[in-house]
Amino acid sequence: MIQAFAFYLFAVLVIASGAFCILARNPVHSVLWLIVAFFNAAGLMVLVGAEFIAMLLVIVYVGAVAVLFLFVVMMLDIDFAELRAGFVRNFPLGIALALVLVSELVLGLGALKVGGLKLGASDGSAMTATGQSNIEAIGALLYSRYLFVFEASGMILLVAMIGAIVLTHRQRSDTRGQNISRQVARRPDEATRNERPEVGQGIQL
Amino acid sequence: MTLVDSLRLGAPEEWLSVAGLGLLMVAAWGGDKAARLIGLLAITALVVAGVLVAPSLTGHLSGSAVAAFQGQYSGDAFAAFGKLLIYLSAIVTLIIAPRFFDRSGGMRAEFPLLVLFASLGMGLMVSATDLIMLYIGLELNSLSAYVLASILRNDDRSAEAGLKYFVLGALASGILLFGMSLVYGFAGTTSFHGIHAALNGPMAMGATFGMIFMLSGLAFKISAAPFHMWTPDVYEGAPTPVTTFFATAPKVAAMALLMRVMLVAFGAEVGAWRQIIVFVSLISIVIGALGAIGQTNAEGGNIKRLMAYSSINNVGFILVGLAAATPQGASAMLVYLAIYVAMSVAGFVAVLLLRDEEGNQIEAIADLGGLSKRRPGIAAALAAVMFSLAGIPPLFGFWGKFVVFQAAVASGLLWLAALGIAASVIGAFYYLKVVKVMYFDEDVGKVTGAGDTPHFALLIASGVFISPLGYLATPWLGGLADGAAAALFHVG
Questions:
Q1: Smallest Cα–Cα separation from B78: which of B400, B403, B481, B475?
Q2: Most CB atoms within 10 A, among A118, B74, B269, B484?
């Protein structure tokens, strides 16, 4: 009972927030609705027992991808009037794309009724799930059988980080940072001096 | 095999990782001022890794005795041969880099580190006996290479090269990954030996698709036609030491990887991929030669672009050995690769020595006019490289082509060998054109700058290897390559 309730709650929220995501006028709102959709999709994943994918959705999609979207959308200077002007011109293209998608849906549903696709036979060597949770099973494999490649993928991330820093970080010489300790250590007799210039003459600064 | 045994077999990679992390700390605290020191330390680290690898080259161990990490990694003689060539290329790159970067915006502390991490990734590539290991190694190498190509970020050409390489490389990685997922779906395993056992007899349509996608992705990495488009732009735009690196180490790694995938994983399906390899090989030879002729004729003919087309051309010849699909063919490919690395090193070091009065690099072919009068040594070296690349008999480049064609003939591909030899005549034209510009054209007086000792030492070392004296090394080189190829074909 409670599962059915949770399923319908999450499902309705996913569809609703998905609809709001494409209907919202403000792109920032769209991204926020997208995040709501991700959270509810994660809830659906938990319901079917795929808690690892649920965590991935929250951590990777909400935590990284959606925030990245948000940054991009907020940094872009979007001219809404221009966007709407393009709507009429691109309308036929949009309709054509929609038709393609609809026909694909119909084709897919029709094919599903005929029967599943035969993609080779499994050789039975894969482990059967025995009471372990997804995360335990994946973790056990990652830290035993795939230890070496797991560590090597850590090296890939390190190289990606080095690369990003090499290509974007620059020491700027034209900015003047605040040096607090120097400011604190400054004394009045170093900062000011008395001058008595002659009439008609300037002073050396 | 216990984890300790596995770790012992993977020692070169583990050492390089630890050395890279340690040098990263030096770079973090020392900054760009420590770049030369880090370069020297990185060379030392690579030499140590080479010493760790060397015993397995002649160890005659193969099969399960060298299969580490549940058969994902192989420390056999084949991997050792590839790794030694890769480390050697990386060392050459690190030796020639400081002088070049002194001119153009300073040597960055991260440069030797990225070369080190790229070598680590390539080591994984040549040792990979599992699709996952293959991909991890390939990506580690590719990511480092993208950054290396655009390391002169204020130079438009370098940035463009990096961007092009990144976009096309990411596409190729995606294609490779798609093919790998198809192959995994049909074979039910990611291990090369498992795939060999599963794909026996008539191949399913999906598995064939997967294999072709994998082949396309790997053909991009070795810059074989028709996936070669990125090569001239990247080779021209990247800083010359980086180009030297690209032309040598990743070529060896990707070619060794391709050999392992084709001869081990798809070893039972030679009929399914031989025709593709033959096609790719012939079209690479022709496109490489025609593109290079375009470079020698055009006004803005660029020597780095010429070398890029020449590498496409040479990859075509190396693939002739793969089409043979025999241990002899694999051994011939390894011999060719070793000679090709020496020719590329000699060629690019000679190009690096071409400087004008102010020390700027000279890359236009037209500016080489009269080089023989001003710098007879460099001109002679470049001429030797060109004749060797063309495969003119007294030079060592001929031996590479000879063994490859011999292997093709021995496995009944006489027509392929005949076509290859005919096509190599096209190539001889543009190599001779460069020699003609250097020796018989009017002196334009551009190349006047001085060289330095490390460059000349490298030029002499690689020059002696590609000279007729190189033939003294054939029994030794051939023996090592035979051992490596035998390890590749060992079953069990």
A1: B481
A2: B74
Alpha-carbon distance B129 to nearest alpha carbon in chain A (angstroms): 12
| Per-residue confidence (pLDDT) for residue B105, from 0 to 100 | 63
For residues B118 and A105, what is the distance between their CA atoms, to the nearest angstrom? 44
Structure tokens at B411: 């496995």
Full DSSP string of B155-210: SHHHHHHHHHHHHHHHHHHHHHHHHHHHHHHHHS--BHHHHHHHS-SSPPHHHHHH
B146 and A156 within 8 Å at the Cβ level: the answer is no
> Measured between alpha carbons, how far is B45 from B21 in angstroms, rounded to an integer?
12
Sign of the alpha-carbon torsion through A41, A44, A50, A51? positive
CA angle B41, B44, B46 (to 5 degrees): 115
Closest CA to B335 of B426, B233, B235, B407: B407
Q: Is B307 exposed, middle or buried (0-12, 13-18, 19+ CB in 10 A)?
A: buried
Bridge partners, B128 (sequence order): B73
Q: How far apart are CA B342 and CA B339, in angstroms?
A: 5
In chain B, whose CA is at the least distance from the CA of A123?
A: B188
Across the interface, do B132 and A149 touch by the CB < 8 Å criterion? yes
- Residue B480 CA to its chain's centroid (Å): 18
- The 3-state DSSP class for residue A177 equals coil
* C-beta neighbour count of A17 within 10 angstroms: 20
Length of chain A: 205
Per-residue model confidence as pLDDT tens digits over B282-302: 999 999 888 888 877 666 678
| Position B206 pLDDT exceeds 80 | yes
In chain B, what are the domain boundaries?
272-492
Contact yes or no for B370/B441 (Cβ under 8 A): yes
List the structure tokens of B156: 């438009």
The helix (H) or strand (E) run that includes residue B73 is strand B73-74
Closest approach of chain A CAs to the CA of B324, in angstroms?
A: 30
* C-alpha span between B118 and A73 (Å, rounded): 35
Residues of B in contact with A121 (CB under 8 A): 188
Partner residue opposite A160 with nearest CB, options B73, B143, B186: B143
Here the ipTM equals: 0.90
**pTM (2 decimals)?**
0.85
A158 vs B206, more confident: A158
Contact assignment for B136 to A156 by CB distance below 8 Å: yes
- At B130 the three-state DSSP class reads strand
